[in-house]
User: What shape does this take?
Amino acid sequence: MRPHLLLAFGLLTVMTASSQTSYDLLLQGGHVIDPKNNLSAVRDIAIKDGRIAAVAEHIDPAQALKTVNVHGLLVTPGLVDIHVHVYASTGEHASYAGDNSVWPDGFTFRSGVTSVADAGSSGARNFADFKEHIIDRSKTRVLAFLNIVGAGMRGPKYENNLADMVPETAAEVAREYPGLIIGIKTAHYAGPEWTPVENAVKAGTLANIPVMVDFGTNHEERPLDVLLTRKLRPGDIYTHCYSGLRDELLPDGNVNPGMIEGRKRGVIFDVGHGGGSFVWRVAVPAIEQGFRPDSISTDLHIGSMNTGMKTMLNVMSKFLALGLSVDEVIADSTWHPAREIHHEELGNLSIGAPADVAVLRIEHGDFGFTDSYGARMNGNQKFECELTVKGGKIEYDLNGISRPDWRKLPPDYKAIGDHRWDDLNPASKTP
Assistant: This one.
């Protein structure tokens, strides 16, 4: 048969098979953890037109164009990392609106992450550039906390400029991009004034979005307990909660009472591991005293990814070592952060939700996890990503579990456009 006729026949096969099936993709036999829906059990998940179409104990594989066997694996919502730095396009040296950031698609899908929130790399004056060059061009869903500093996160010269922290301007830009700008960020301020926090909260109030605070340099004039009990609103986010840099743990070894009172008021506590903001000597006693995180995030940038932080899955694995259950860690990495940024359509596997799915393996063995200062904690479990689905499309497949064996393909097999040989030949689906 001539090549163009073979291609036409293949496409016709896809169209015919698609018209006879109810689902595009079936993930069969995995242990599904969906915290929003209180589900932790073996289930099949079917996807159609980029959305979750069915979750059941058994779904007939004949109803799916493609079936992937995920027995023995965890199937979770796509991970939601609400503290990253991905404004990597400007070329500015030593700047989080530049060379300190990373390109999102290179670091997300391989860790099961499908959605991220950039934490203040851009401000009111450069958000449009960030949107054009990163957000609009990424397969990863990229949302943003807008920096209260109009110039964004570009180093002390900019981040200590109180005159550039204009709440009305930040709120105006945030309102131009509802749902895309999901909060206001204040970070790295070195002075003793409350102005960055107060202006960020004012901007958040004007735009009706939360504030994320990296509290900067510790000063007795602005103690942590005042921030958490008087300055922040319910729903605002304190990141780097196990840093030890701002009296999160008192000299007597107890969690700062301001953190406990802040949580009672509704302040949210986020990990934000980063390159210098997570230490065992704070995290261990805090969790022993019952002070768990509300959300797990990486603070991904060029420094953190090559030191203690490494990846989202590495940070999640640390919390297994700290004694949290698998279900708790998944909740803190999916549904909880999705709620915190007011994107409740994410971080869950409800019928009709975007088909963002992470298929994870738990490895057992002897592992070591380091904090921001290089201190090690031993652990016997860690997460590994096998498969990542974003919007119903497989974006990452570590071991080719969604692919056919090469020996079952035609001798001259190759990719054809957006189609693959196993799509053109439904009979080659994974049993």
